[in-house]
Amino acid sequence: MFRIRRVFDGVLPRDARTVEQVQALLRERFPGVEEKEIRQIPAMLRDPLHHRFRAVLFVAESADKLAGFALMLHVPDVGFCWLDYVAAQPGSAGRGVGAALYDRVREEARFLGGIGLFFESLPADPEFCMDASLRKENRARLRFYERFGVRIVANTKYETPLIDEPAPCPPHLLFDPYTAKKPLGRKDAQQVVRAILERKYGGRCPEGYVDMVADSFRDDPVRLAEPRYATPAPPPAAQVSPQIALTVNDRHEIHHVRERGYVESPARIDAILKKIEPSGLFERLRVQGYPLRHVTAVHDPGMVGYFRAVCARLGEKEAVYPYVFPIRNQARPPRELPRRAGYYVIDTFTPLSRNAFLAARGAVNCALTAADSLLDGQRLAYALVRPPGHHAERRAFGGFCYLNSTAVAANHLSEFGKVAVLDVDYHHGNGTQDIFYERADVLTISIHGHPNGAYPYFSGFASERGEGQGRGFNMNLPLPDGVDGEAYRTVLAKALKRLARFGPRFLVIALGLDTAKGDPTGTWRLTPTDFEKNGRMLGRLCLPTLVVQEGGYRTSSLGPNALAFFRGLSEGTRERTRNMECAE
């Protein structure tokens, strides 16, 4: 089994190693390629404007080993895609690596739109290739492409050798008609040929060569040769590969407070899953286990130890509700564990149960697994978890939250670059703010109901801007009751401007769906259309983005709103990549 993913750049250590493997495989499989061209691949990925085309690199990996790669160039000013190389590791014949890579390239070319997908392949005809051994190998390549419906562009001088050679073997120009919305026109083909010959081959073309080849395209539409080496398969159905890595806390239901009116229920997760999984947008990952040090890096070890110990002592149907709050003497926590609950909690509706710690730990593991998928090259990841976490502070929990999964993941990612946390839950993310309040490497922004009337009531005011080195790196945007989608997006745009000035390497979104119309804990009126627009705005940031589920309690609307948000997030990201604006 292998997995195909896109490498956006070679900045992260994992991607840098992958690019080195791609370069090694390119040297091995295409010994005639100049070393200069191989070495410039990282720069092509990071700086498309300099090279006048944008490199799109897909890799097939099996157990973290490179099985193959495809390097495609997108030329947006002319409007076409060029498949530069596709290669599989020696000995991988029959595994389908090359076919899977080509399918992914074709899907991306269709998404990017324009004239279509072009590339070169060496000829198998004695008229163009005198070497019999080469012709056999070339025939196999042409057979491979013709099975996909790819056609050789005919009746032109594209096969004219660049220079006089004793045994020339100039390439055919190939066109994939299934990536185009209309037949290949003469003017379009001439533009494509000029762009490739001038940008890719540059000074190697003799004087007058480019004009000679371009002018040889006289058929309109351009003539395509009939297949000679294989019978084409039927046209492929349009498909979209999964865009979002998904982790689910599949043991969340062990934490279930069955009191009447307790809205943080297991049904929330099922409602979202049922709607989003059939969309094809998500690829579920196996959740990994992580050491507790990730949790104690953001939470007081005393609080974590207490939480773990008190839960372990409770019976299956027992629960501890805090009823003593020793705020006047924090140096003397109550000795007995049940009475000590108020020492670490900020409200009376976050009970401790036998499985609360285990469920919260599972949520943290989901968030960390999703965060690590970003480090592995994934662009978007979603940790669908409960219990939520953003109200859990460094040394206190509350608001249905026990361990702050969002903060744990953000802190983990901050080891690899600056992180922005955007909390879009209806309720202020007081826990995340508290944890990062004195740090300048993690920007925290929260858009929420004004604390004068919304939980947690004591924080979330605009005047809270951070302290010490973190001064200026916390931004609260409290809003009144009754906000609609348009008013919300005006404030979201303000938040995104601040975020852009910060220049983060990663974005972590604390996603609350309780901003929706009809949510029992909120007063705002956002609809699925609004969630889609909000997601699109965030996707256009084109940052490696982790979304962690927080609140949202109207079960009937959770699924449609979540799906709308992620459709927008995915489309926003892809729109931005289509316009060449995702360069580092």
From TrEMBL:
Lineage: superkingdom: Bacteria
Annotated ranges, domain N-acetyltransferase: 2-185
Pfam hit, one: Hist_deacetyl
Keywords: Hydrolase, Metal-binding, Zinc
Signal sequence region: none
Family label: Belongs to the histone deacetylase family.
Name of the molecule in the record: Histone deacetylase family protein
